[in-house]
Give the backbone structure.
Amino acid sequence: MKKAVFLRIVLTAAVLALLLSGCRFVQVEEEERKPVDYTVVERRDIPEELSRLMEEKKEKEFQLSYETGEDLYLAKGYGRQMSGGYSIQVEELGESSNGIFFVTKLLGPEDLKEAGVPSYPCIVIKTRKQEKPVTFRESSSPVKKESEKGEKTVELKKESMQILKEKSRAKSQITFDEDFNVPDAKPDAGRLIQNKGRIIMDDVRLTDGKGILTGNLQVDILYVGEERGIVSSLTAKLPFEETLNLKNIINGDKMCLKWEIEDLTIRLIHSRKLNIKALVTFCATVDETEQIRLPVALDAEEVSVRKKTVRFLGLTVHKKDTLRIKDEYTIASNRPDIASLIWYTMDVRGLDLKPEENVVKARGELSVFVLYGAEDTEAPVQWLEYSLPFSGEVECPDCTEELIPLIEASVMHQSLEAKPDVDGEERILVSDVVLELDMKFFREEEYDLITDVYTPIRECVPEGKNEVLERLLVRNFSRCRISDRIQVKETQGKVLQLCHSQGKVKIDKTRIVENGVQADGVVMLKILYIIGNDDMPFYSMEAMIPFSHMVEARGIRQDSCYQLKAKLEQLSAAMADGNEIEIRATVGLELLAVAREPVFIIEKVEEKPLDMKKLQAMP
């Protein structure tokens, strides 16, 4: 025989009881109550149906009573809070002649700097089943406490908001100037064609006041052999160890590290030795989350409050994750098989990251260029260029579509390999790219902030601290289209064909102008092309195309704060005539601007007797 299970959702203190004889209202009398024994239920011991209902209702404040067999379960949830560290105190579980009273109180984090993702504090207790209505109550009436000075204080009802503050910042530059010998297995170097560099981090350690970085600067070099014009490549790894001085950090803090190769120059000393010079800049920031508790209510009838409606930007989610982009491309049937990979470049273009329900959706395009050696003796070097659209997602608990994202993406790993097809021929290219995502999501919420308190029968002295909080001004995305022509300066003959073009956006300067942010920068280009010399056909050139663009931001002021990100969305190069190349590019500029407002946050209100002498002296 199945046990009957009853579920009651209690909405008000007045309980509507349905009886067999009809309907009647049962008034829960305020009379002396006696305590009732109970136990706090662990999450794993909560009945399955009750647990499901709690999960459905967790976003908002809820209260549930649930009966099964001889047991009565009472559940109280306080909805979404902006961080962890909350606890619930059971003030009372008591009964009168015609009702049960469950009184709870939400306690905020003891450490206001406690970090963490949003939480959903709730509590479930179990007691014996009784045929009485249940009244849920929040112990929110002002509680008068003794201050350290022996004066009475009134407790305020507060709402929590999580903000992100910069704890420490450091910047450092590493200079490389090293000679590198061409490996014995590689042909003698006759002429350098192109190079690329990237930073590979091996370890990042934080100790008290310091960040220790170890890794390698990996430099790839494409060159033409001194004999027979063989196109080849080599890789040099230059190790480094750098210490960043970061004030006030401790072991366990999280650091956001960015780097940029500002200059990379390769010089041919002779056919077996190269000189590599580079300048790498590292920027590190350590952020910390802080809980701000905003006073929004004071229920003491004899005390009046002044309120101000404000909107502030609070941190909802802050996490790091990785996005892997892996895909295959089969070369066309009219191309020879792949004997060896000589050179490749991969760029992520048009990356779009959007928050949705508990995930971040990603889409974009992977642009790949490959030079490979073929077994065909008539055309020993082949090249091809292709694009692979991709989409994916990253798990992100507590993300929603309406959040304001601030996401930094950087390439953590990239590789290209050849593998055989079903016939055993090397005709499939496998690209693998791993992006590291530093994701911050914000939500702008409205608060009725208490700014002052007053009562004619006592002197109320608000005490608190000054904070600087942020308000969203504008979030805007703009595109700058660039069109220009560049001269082919270095040439050993007429340009027959452009093989590949790649670019990078560098912002040199930004400034606030009327209703916008002006950005000045350059698109740095590398173009690989072929000339009519069959012995040494491959050449490369570098160029910079300047641009200036204003991103609209109405209402922005000189004291506003903003973050501007630039990315290359599209790039094309085409021959205009024998020695000119026409460049078309699209640069995407994403702006997030906020206003920083000083706010006095009342933390407590002390009550003092009126100073009668002072009152009598007033005009």
